[in-house]
Structure formats: C-alpha cells, structure tokens
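agent: user wants the full assembly modeled, not chains individually. Plan: 1) parse entity lines 2) check alphabet per entity 3) run joint structure prediction 4) return tokens. Steps 1-2 passed, three entities, 609 residues total. Proceeding.
--- entities ---
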Amino acid sequence: MSTQYVLELIGTYFFAISGALAVADVENDLFGASFTGFLTAIGGGTLRDLILDSHPLVWIGDPYVLYSVFAGVLTAIIFFKWVIKLKKTLFLFDTMGISLFTVLGVEKALYFGAPDEVAVIMGIFSAVMGGVIRDTLSNVTPVILRKEIYASACMIGAISYLILNKFHVERELNLIISASLIASVRVLAVRYKVYLPALGSWR
Amino acid sequence: MSTQYVLELIGTYFFAISGALAVADVENDLFGASFTGFLTAIGGGTLRDLILDSHPLVWIGDPYVLYSVFAGVLTAIIFFKWVIKLKKTLFLFDTMGISLFTVLGVEKALYFGAPDEVAVIMGIFSAVMGGVIRDTLSNVTPVILRKEIYASACMIGAISYLILNKFHVERELNLIISASLIASVRVLAVRYKVYLPALGSWR
Amino acid sequence: MSTQYVLELIGTYFFAISGALAVADVENDLFGASFTGFLTAIGGGTLRDLILDSHPLVWIGDPYVLYSVFAGVLTAIIFFKWVIKLKKTLFLFDTMGISLFTVLGVEKALYFGAPDEVAVIMGIFSAVMGGVIRDTLSNVTPVILRKEIYASACMIGAISYLILNKFHVERELNLIISASLIASVRVLAVRYKVYLPALGSWR
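--- prediction returned ---
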C-alpha cells in the first residue's frame, strides 16, 4: 500500500465525519447525515477525476474508499455527543481533510500530464469542493467564501509541493511536508486571526 | 423497446413535471420552470452516466428522452392549475420518479461491472440527485436532508434488486418488484409518519 | 488563432469579472472572489465538455483560458471601486459572456455530432451554468429562475445559429450575428421590461 493510498483513505474518513456532522443542526435524519458525509468525502475527488478523465473513479474502483466513508459516518453517528461539542474537533477534521486532498490532487494532476497552474487548481478543487457541496446542501455560505484562510492555505501547500518536486525532494516526504504546511497555515491563521482583505477593502 | 427503456422515459417524464412545478412559488418565468424541469429530469441520470463514464449520455444519444422532458414540462404548464392544487400529485410524481430511477441506476452500474456497494449508491444517486439539484436551485432544504423516508426507501429497493438478482429473478420482473417496493415504503412511511431518528437523538 | 478561440477567451474574461464581483457584498475575501470568478468562468464550459466527453477540458489543455480567468479576476479586484458602482457594467459583462458562450456551445455540440435539439441545450447550458453556480454559491436565486429574459435569449440565439447554419451562412459571420442577437434581445427586454409570463399566470 502506497503512502498516497493510505493518505487518501484517511482524508476520506475525516471528510466523511465533517460532512455527517455539518447537517446536525438542520432538521435531518440519520440517512441525510450519511448522505452528506458521503458527498463531502467523495465530492472533491470525484470532480477531480471527472475533470482529469480518470476512470474508474477512485471510490468505484476500490471498495476501501467506500469503507472509509462508512467508517467516518459511523464515527460521527456513534460519537456524535462527544464530537459535536468540540467545535475544534470538526475544524480539525476538515483541516486534515483539505491538507491531504490538496497534495493528492496536485500529484494526480501532474501524473495526468497537467501543467503546473492546472495542478495547483486541481489540488485546491479536490480539497475544497467536497466542503462547498456540504455547505451548499446545508444552506451555509461556503467556507471558501468566508473571510478566513482556507483555500489560500491549500494554494500555498500546492505550490510548495510543486517547488519541492522541482528540487527532487522525495515524493512521500514532499506529501507530508506540504500537507503539514497547509494544516499549519490554516491553524495559525485561525489562532492569530489572520485573514485576507475583502474585495474592495482599499480605496 | 425494452422495459428498462420505457421505464426510463416514464421516470424522466415524472421528474420533469415535479421539477417544473417545484419553482412555481418562486418569482419565476415559464422558461425558468422548463429549465428546472429539465435539470431535475436529467440531473440524476447525467451524474450517473458521468460517474460510470457511459457516453453518449442517455439524453444526448436518444432524442426521445428529451421529448419526455418536453412532455413533462408541457404537462406542468398546461395542467398547472389542476396539478399544483394537489400536493399529493407532486409527491406521487416524485415518488414514481425515484422508484424507477433507483432500479435503473442499480442495473446500469452492474452492467458497467461496478461492485454491489457501488451499484446501490449509483441507484440512490440516479434517483435523488435530480431532486437535490431542483431543491438547491429553488433554495429549499434538499428533501434528502429532511426527516422523511426518502433516500432510505431507495436504498431498500436497491438492495432488494441486488438480492432478487442473486436468486436469478427475471430482470423485468425484478425491476417492477423493486420499484414498487420503493414506492410502497415511501408512501406508507409518509402515511403512517414513520421516519428515521435524527443524528444525535439518543444520549 | 480562430475566431471561436478568441471569442472563448473574451467570454471567459467577462464571466470571470462577473463572478468575482458577484460575491462582493457577502462577507468574503479576495481569494473567495477569485474562486467564484474562476467557477463562474469555467463552470459552463466544463459542464459542456464533460457532457460531450470532450477531453482535455478547454482550460486544462490550454493555459490561455486560465490566463483569461486571472485577467478577469484581476480586473475585478483592481477596478473594483469603479466597476461595482456601475450595476449596468456587471449586467453588460454577463450579457457578453452568455452571448458568446451560447453560440460556442452550439457549435461545439454540432462538431461532436449532437442532434439539433441537444445542440441548443448545450448552448444554453454553456452560457447559463456558470451563472447558476455563481448564484448558488452566493445564495442568490439563480438569474435563470427570475422573471427576466435570460436563458430564453440564449435559446433564440442558439436557434438562429442553427438556422443560419442550414443556409450555409459562413461560420464566423454566423457566430457574430447570433451572439449579437442574444445580446440585443436581452438588453432590449430589460430596457423595455419585456418578460415571459410566470408559470400559472393564466387561468
């Protein structure tokens, strides 16, 4: 089992938890929560694979991806009482998810021969589109539009991956460094309330 | 003409009606209603075919699918006054739509060699994604997230199809049994107010 | 460089501006605006290409499409103060975008051997889906559902393209005539407050 594969399963698991919990305050049922967890977990990767024309899609060719989703949804259901109290936990799961999916998306795009700009975008897409779907379904302004370092952290990590790759840093090491960079940027930005200026904030 | 084909046309027709009527209370025009009818009718199948990499998409390769959509939208427009009064009618059209699309989705996924778990998901997807698109466009909480037996009914029918298939029940019979099962489960659940517990409803 | 190609770049540029500005009043940051600009600009074309199974997608195979998006987003950011004041400007950018994308979508669908009905739909899709995504993300009722000549203008232009094509009008001339027709219909409809009746407006 390659590192990429294991990371994809872990990222999927985290995203499924975050998706299942997202609709907890909406009037919803267990199945609705599972469905949102599923869409959140596979949304970004599915879009990435459709855009790159990579078939079969990861979750179709490999049942373990689905099992990761089921595990995530189950975790959300069983440990609901504990997990939901800790808003920080939810934040953490989402952060782990986007960090892993960004670097995996970049890597996959490069593998399919995409140019650097496209690889960066595919990384961001894989990471954030699951959350965009989750937020759209639960009628929340997508986190990507909120004044918070989010997709920008993904972009930094994607570019870091590309640069380290040019310097022939070993693939697995690069995956871990760049994913950690994304998580750190996001966590530090939230901790120290750093954010990007709003459009039209200067005159 | 195969049974599957006829059922797909009928399901498309029902979904188009339900989609066109969905936006009736929003400030919209005839074209907006037609467009929503169209997206609702072809949304689930398009997503299914994109995910399975089945080209050309059903509605591109076969004009009769488009004619079904047109017929559904026209029905909605012409009989609007009668149809909209009967909330039950709308509910019925939607129920017919999801019942047919679930079993057709399962069948198509199996035909493309998908494993059982994926086939169940593809069945649910084909059935509910059109409605998710419809509800998202008209700014309603997607029915799939509401506390109502909906996607769960689809799941029951999808699993029923797989089981009967293992026991070599004839295909066309299986299509009809499993689709009827979905419709019955949904209708009975609504009639007797059965629903799944919400996430975190136990302590 | 073909006319089609140049028009696609220009349409992309206009859509990126309109997308980036759309979220200006939501609490959002620069990156959110860029992302919405990006999705708006490439959304319709991406969907068109996925549906037609045309790979690589335009913006993946050709970096200039991405540069058009970047240029549009930059324009929105730098000239924000001026541009946002002029609601008419935003309307104009959107109108230019849909006019160009409609005829390009029709043309591409015909090139892929789609029947006429499908070509019309693909034209409308390419034109309006970027805006639908933009409006859904910023929690606005999609313009296509509002009582305003919008997708109907696209339909008129798409049909005009098909008819002129049957009469062997030269391709580039046809592109320009039909795109201008769309823009004129929309502008005149808004100017003289012409709109389609709402569903169920007659008894």
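agent: reporting back. The interface with chain A takes residues 20-21, 23-24, 26-33, 35-36, 38, 46, 50, 55-57, 59-60, 63, 66, 76-77, 80-81, 84, 136-139 of chain C (CB under 8 Å). Chain C has a mean pLDDT of 85.
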